[in-house]
């Protein structure tokens, strides 16, 4: 628990065999549940997560495997549904590629805990580390950010492509998952700890 709040981390993972272990073991101890959603990886991602479950039995790690690839949005949706079923207060999304700094988690949680927001999003551009981003990627990120601002009307959005986010249970409960279609897949079942 973090300040009396139950926190889940959803890790959407597709072919993340090289970095999934690093991602999982660096998630802070105050997290109540880590939900890895293996999105029909063709590598050893799910096998590695299962070995982490055996090696670290104290780790609150759940593996969900998709029977077919649904994309990162589908994996996040599955993770959100599981977090709601587990009655988590806040659900964080961290990619399986170990690029989201776990030390920044309190910054994402703070506005929700303080009642100032229901959803928060990371900002890679706040620090000088974005200078390490290849020039073409910085250009693409800037262009997509501008288009997002124009389309949404939210001119204060800084890094909309950043997937590091946190959402309250209240906001998740408002979502109608049955009406959300990911790659044309509606209401497809997932396998909890059973199928690969």
């Amino acid at each position: 628990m973090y300040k009396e709040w139950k926190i889940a981390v959803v890790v959407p993972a597709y072919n993340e065999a090289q970095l999934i272990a690093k991602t999982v073991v660096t998630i802070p101890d105050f997290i109540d549940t880590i939900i890895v959603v293996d999105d029909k990886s063709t590598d050893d991602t799910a096998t590695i997560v299962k070995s982490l479950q055996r090696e670290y039995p104290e780790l609150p790690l759940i593996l969900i495997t998709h029977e077919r690839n649904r994309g990162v949005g589908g994996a996040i949706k599955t993770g959100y549904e599981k977090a709601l079923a587990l009655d988590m207060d806040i659900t964080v999304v961290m990619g399986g590629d170990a690029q989201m700094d776990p030390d920044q988690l309190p910054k994402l949680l703070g506005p929700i805990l303080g009642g100032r927001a229901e959803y928060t999003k990371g900002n890679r551009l706040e620090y000088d580390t974005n200078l390490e981003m290849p020039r073409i990627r910085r250009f693409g990120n800037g262009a997509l950010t501008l288009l997002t601002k124009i389309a949404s009307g939210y001119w204060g959005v800084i890094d909309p492509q950043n997937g590091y986010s946190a959402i309250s249970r209240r906001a998740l409960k408002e979502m109608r998952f049955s009406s959300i279609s990911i790659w044309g897949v509606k209401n497809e079942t997932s396998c909890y700890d059973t199928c690969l």
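The chain has two domains: 7-122+163-192, 124-161. Residues 10 and 35 are 5 Å apart (CA to CA).
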